[in-house]
Design a protein that fits this description.
- The protein is mostly helical.
- It has one domain (2-40, 48-122).
- 83% of the residues lie in helices and 0% in strands.
- Helix 1 (2-39) runs antiparallel to helix 4 (105-117), helix 2 crosses helix 3 and helix 3 (86-99) packs antiparallel against helix 4 (105-117).
- It starts with a helix and ends with a helix.
Length: 127
């Protein structure tokens, strides 16, 4: 089961890293959109486009923050699993439950996490 715990750890680190990359992409996309909207205001008779810039920036920052908040626990749990820390097992069980609605990859990761971490022989590794 030690190998399965390591595989699960690497999967959580990988999924978390993909989330971090996604957060950075969202930040750049919304920043680019805000820049284009701000630049398109040149010569406009009203200030409507420029008023949208902070709204777009806030939406982009909020999406980025949410994705970061969802990705960082997976990375932390993955590194804890690699060191067989008891708190990492509990955190990963919680994250496995949260991944279940994410069809198909999140569901697979959640089911695999439950299968690995709820076995009695795995529980002995984290004592």
């Amino acid at each position: 089961m030690r190998d399965h715990v390591r595989i699960l750890a690497y999967l959580h680190i990988g999924f978390g890293a993909l989330g971090l990359v996604g957060a950075v992409i969202v930040l750049f996309v919304f920043g680019g959109i805000a820049a284009v909207v701000g630049a398109s205001n040149a010569g406009a008779p009203h200030d409507l486009p420029i008023a949208a810039v902070p709204i777009i920036a806030v939406i982009g920052a909020a999406i980025c923050a949410i994705v970061l908040l969802l990705s960082l626990p997976g990375i932390i749990a993955g590194f804890g699993l690699l060191r067989f820390r008891p708190w990492a097992r509990i955190l990963t069980i919680i994250l496995s439950a949260l991944h279940l609605p994410g069809v198909p990859f999140g569901t697979a990761l959640g089911v695999y996490g439950f299968w690995v971490l709820l076995k009695p022989e795995t529980e002995r590794l984290f004592v």
